[in-house]
Amino acid sequence: MARLSLSLVGSRNALAFLDMLAVSEGTAGNGDDGYDVLVGGALFQGYAEHPNRRVWLPRLGIYSTAAGRYQVLARTWGDLRRKLALRDFSPESQDLAAIELIRECHALDDIHIGRFDAAVYACRRIWASLPGAGYGQRENKLSALRFAYQSAGGVVAGEAA
After folding, report:
1. Annotated catalytic, 92?
2. Alpha-carbon span 67 to 145, nearest angstrom
3. Chain segment 27-69, per-residue pLDDT in tens
4. Is residue 64 within 8 Å of 73, Cβ to Cβ?
5. Of 132, 150, 145, nearest to 25 (Cα)?
6. Which pairing describes strands 55-57 and 62-64: parallel, antiparallel, or unpaired?
7. Which residue, 20, 22, 23, 31, has fewest beta-carbon neighbours within 10 Å?
8. Which helix (H) or strand (E) holds 97?
9. Residue tagged active-site, from 25, 49, 100, 139
């Protein structure tokens, strides 16, 4: 489960969406529940800074610096760290950064009111594992992500809680 308090994210749905993103990115349940995971699955030590390690991904033929529960790239992290005045790469900072990325996608209101599919669609350009992202990487099925979201306590509009 995400480590931010409900008061900081605005709704239980937002916390569930963060948990769903960790499932989608393949970090949930690994290491410190994904907060210390490098792209490819290795773990890093310490939260003082984004690890900024270039990892070769032979299947994709690219290097990536994605790290943490939400697999944020080093360049994206640098921008978010400055914008949000984050002091470290701690779990709380990673959660705040993910919420900001969701907000920048104009998906936070959709999440709060339970428009799950619309929120996933809006966030697909940020997270390559979301359906329709189009980055040539593994994309998860919307139904599987909805299940992960609901299992984490998220409610889809029009469905009973």
Report:
1. no
2. 20
3. 999 999 999 999 999 999 999 999 999 999 998 899 999 999 9
4. yes
5. 145
6. antiparallel
7. 31
8. helix 91-104
9. 25
